[in-house]
Amino acid sequence: MTLNQLRAFALVARLGSLRAAAATLGISEPAVSSSLAALRLDLGDALIVRAGSGIALTAGGRALADHAQEIVGLADQVRWEVSHAAESAASLRVVATAGFAEHAAGRLLDAFTRRMPGHAGGIDVVVERADDVASLLQDHAYDVALGSRPPQGPQLEVVPFLRYQRVLVAAPEHPLGRQLSVPLAALLGEPWFTGQAGIEEFTAESSWLAATFLVSGVGVPETVPLSSETDALAAVRAGEGIMLAFRHIVRAEVTAGSLVVLSVPNTPIAGLWCASTLDHGRAPAAARTLQRFVTTAEATAAMLAPGGSRGVARRGSKVHVALWS
Questions:
Q1: Which of these, 267, 275, 210, 276, lies nearest to 243 by C-alpha position?
Q2: What does the DSSP 8-state code read for residue 213?
Q3: pLDDT value at position 318?
Q4: In degrees rounded to 5, what are phi and psi of residue 171?
């Protein structure tokens, strides 16, 4: 059993196709078949069988699939850590969900590197979808996740660190902004602006939409994703629509009267930001240090500081936090 064989099997199991696995690995389909054949011989199990127009895992294949990706992920992590050991022993790979990344990540990580100067040499942040975070951590693609609580699996340690609220806001001249109480049906005709990620699954916002609109049977609002929540809020200020905004972000504008909070059932929406790592001490020491830091009063003050956004808005690309300080 070799690492390359396990990598090929893990991809076949996840993608459901030898051809897709071969394309991902950049090798031929017969090479993938050869790796699977070697694993079958070594383990004494068919692992994968034909099923209609696709494939299916045997009981043994399912057992192997539970471990193959983790083994491959650990190997990739070891390779990465060894190759970067000379750069900084405190390097951190952080994955953040969109709302947290845009509005709080920079302020938090700036505070962290000031408090822990030994970590200033290497914190890379990538923005990913909330529903991908758990699997990315379990695959050892990242050391720590910040933002929306991932669908918690048995392999994660999830530490809540900040409660937030979302409110529905509009410009004061918007027709809905002049209503004391806004019926749900009236909201369906308005564009709902969001950041690039939209309203993601497994978040407090998506749960609120389901509980408020789907259960009532009135339909689902039309969302209009823009490049960031900052751009979405600008469109709302211009009277073009409405949005679910973080209450602490718009508090000053609501107080000044340049935005109004709409009175809508089940709002404000209460959410929770969390710091997640692999459990049982399997996360790097630097990740556990950050996980502890985010629960401090210093971290909270940094994330809620007035003065606008200080975060990461780019999806899928690394941002070296040390360059921001």
A1: 267
A2: I
A3: 46
A4: -70, 150
Architecture of domain 3-70: Orthogonal Bundle (1.10)
pLDDT tens-digit readout, 50-78: 887 778 889 998 889 878 888 887 787 77
**pLDDT-above-90 percentage for the chain:** 36
Question: Model's pTM, two decimal places?
Answer: 0.67
Predicted confidence at residue 268, as pLDDT, reads: 93
Collapsing DSSP states into helix, strand and coil, what is residue 302? Answer: helix
Average pLDDT over residues 93-118: 87
Could you tell me whether strands 54-57 and 48-51 are parallel, antiparallel, or unpaired per DSSP bridges?
Answer: antiparallel
Residue closest to 197 by CA, chosen among 248, 128, 95, 273: 128
| Cα–Cα distance measured from residue 45 to residue 109, given in angstroms and rounded to the nearest whole number | 48
Could you give the CA distance from residue 63 to residue 57 in angstroms, rounded to a whole number? 9
Report how far apart, in Å, the C-alpha atoms of 98 and of each of 17, 128, 134, 197, 274 are.
Answer: 31, 7, 15, 6, 13
Q: What would the two tokens of residue 149 be?
A: 């609580």
Q: Residues of CATH 3.40.190.10 domain(s) within the chain?
A: 92-161+276-323, 163-270
Q: What's the CATH class of domain 163-270?
A: alpha beta
Task: Tell me if 190 sits within 8 A of 221, measured CB to CB.
Answer: yes
Widest pairwise Cα distance in the chain: 72
For residue 211, give the nearest of 165, 148, 265 by alpha carbon: 265
Q: Under CATH, which number does the domain 92-161+276-323 receive?
A: 3.40.190.10
User: Which contiguous run of DSSP H or E holds residue 145?
Assistant: strand 144-148
Q: How far apart are CA 308 and CA 24, in angstroms?
A: 41
Residue 319: its H or E element: strand 319-320
Residue 172, CA distances (Å) to 22, 168, 243 in order: 56, 12, 13
Q: Are 98 and 205 in contact (CB under 8 A)?
A: no
Burial (0-12, 13-18, 19+ Cβ within 10 Å), 268: middle
| Gyration radius (Cα) of the chain, Å | 23
